[in-house]
Design a protein that fits this description.
3 strands; Ribosomal Protein L30, Chain: A
């Protein structure tokens, strides 16, 4: 299974509470922080919800 490197590139200030909680559940705190996740449907759904605040790279 491939891994996804998710990096927060924009602030969550003035964003809806649901988007803030989604970033928190992805494990993203400060701007510039990165985490690795498995490529699963639930993670892809969370990524799609906050795609304007993050960048995603595929890691093998």
């Amino acid at each position: 299974m491939t891994k996804l490197k998710v990096t927060k590139v924009k602030s969550s200030i003035n964003r809806p509470e649901t988007q803030k909680r989604t970033l928190e559940s992805l494990g993203l705190g400060k701007t510039g922080s990165s985490v690795l996740h498995d490529n699963t449907p639930s993670v892809l759904g969370m990524i799609n919800k906050v795609k304007h605040l993050i960048s995603v790279e595929e890691v093998k």
